[in-house]
Write a structure and sequence with these properties.
Distance between the termini: 17 Å
Helix content: 25-40%
Number of strands: 7
CATH superfamily: Aldehyde oxidase/xanthine dehydrogenase, molybdopterin binding domain
Order of helices and strands: EEHEHEEEHE
Number of domains: 1
Largest sheet: 4 strands, mixed
């Protein structure tokens, strides 16, 4: 059945995205892989993503790197957390953009109205709105898988 891995993805007040996972890179390129998975799922530029491996103090659970399973287990955890975060970001952007989440998309680190160029809000603004709308111990917009 196992072992499995966890991941937490946070939008920082600066708009950068932080990924924390228990899997640490030992030359396998985890940081690049996990950042690309999150970038694709979130519509955030790869350069705006920071990966913290071995950050088990930052996540509910983490097993670590064992053999060749890390991309499958931690990569899937990153993907699931990114999709959850995307849903939350779009929901939080609804009142800001005065549009339904179904009409919104994430592109280049901004939530915008699909088909309406120029009507977008940066992730940093959504994260700031989340701190007042959602009570979290770290004050950041985050999701866990």
């Amino acid at each position: 059945m196992g072992p499995f891995e966890g991941a937490v993805i946070r939008v920082m007040p600066s708009g950068r995205v932080q990924i924390a996972t228990g899997a640490t890179s030992q030359g396998q390129g985890h940081r690049t892989t996990y950042a690309q998975i999150a970038a694709d799922a979130l519509g955030v530029p790869f350069e705006k993503i920071v990966v913290v491996g071995g950050g088990t103090a930052m996540i509910p659970f983490g097993v670590g790197t064992i053999a060749s399973r890390s991309t499958v287990t931690a990569g899937n955890a990153v993907h699931q957390a990114a999709l959850k975060l995307k849903t939350r970001v779009l929901a939080l952007a609804e009142p800001i953009l005065e549009a339904a989440a179904a009409d919104l998309e994430l592109v280049d680190g901004e939530a915008g109205i699909r088909g309406v160029p120029g009507r977008a809000v940066a992730l940093s603004e959504v994260a700031k709105a989340a701190t007042s709308a959602v009570l979290r111990h770290d004050g950041l917009l985050s999701e866990t898988a």
